Fold this sequence. Notes:
Number of strands: 22
Radius of gyration: 23 Å
Structural class: mainly beta
Low-confidence stretches: none
Order of helices and strands: EEEEEEEEEEEEEEEEEEEEEE
Amino acid sequence: MLRLDVDGDDFPADPNRNYAIPPDNPFVGLAGRDEIWAYGLRNPFRSSFDRATGDLYIGDVGQSNREEIDYQGAAGSGGDNYGWKLREGTLQTPPGTNCAGGAPPPGNVEPIYEYSHGGGASQGNSVTGGYVYRGPETAIQGRYFFADFVNERIWSIAAATGANFTDWTTAFVPDAGTIDQIVSFGEDGFANLYIVDLGGEVFRVEGPVGFVPCPDLVLENDAILGIEIFEHCRNILLGPDLMVAAGGELRLGVGNRVVMRGGTTIAGELVVEIDESLQQTPP
């Protein structure tokens, strides 16, 4: 990773180097290129700064086993080594990958979050780095959002620490189109968060988004004609295309939340009872 001063020119005789070297770059006057800020990254795909703190987040695509989120605080002085090629995330790079894996190098900086390759809800094969959310939705303030391009999942972790991993894939339901093959995230001047997919669709995250993902119960593409009872669920997701018909009754016993997606029609009766024994603190 390079750090350049694009407002200066330390190489006026070289038409291909129209920039200056920040004097506090970590390798100025030492062995190595003066432009280098950090190293040991394999294939960074989307880096961003937290607009509130200046902290740096890097989504680094792995090779055989791990995808990772790397972090550097705003007060960092650079020169960080994130471990590649010796390390893939917190693992020794496996043999057979044309890389000589080994023990962590001196000063190795491990990722704040990593996940394994696969098709599970917390797995994937190609990370897409995102942003720390600083927009108007208080429920997700201070969470770093990222995704996996191959497995088409959207996740978040707590800023700086990497704690409180949360899967938002089923909670982010667009008004139109489908979110798939996520290639980038973006922000606007109001700190709204945008999701961009390979098909050219751009989605803006809007509230309410207080629903805790991974619902215990999903009711969709169905018609409730009589009385149906569902109890002992922490979170319930209704729709799309769910109808409680006239004369029908849907009774729900829930600990945290019921969220209705587009296409849900309540012509009959919807009864929601709170079960305090199932309540949990949202992430």
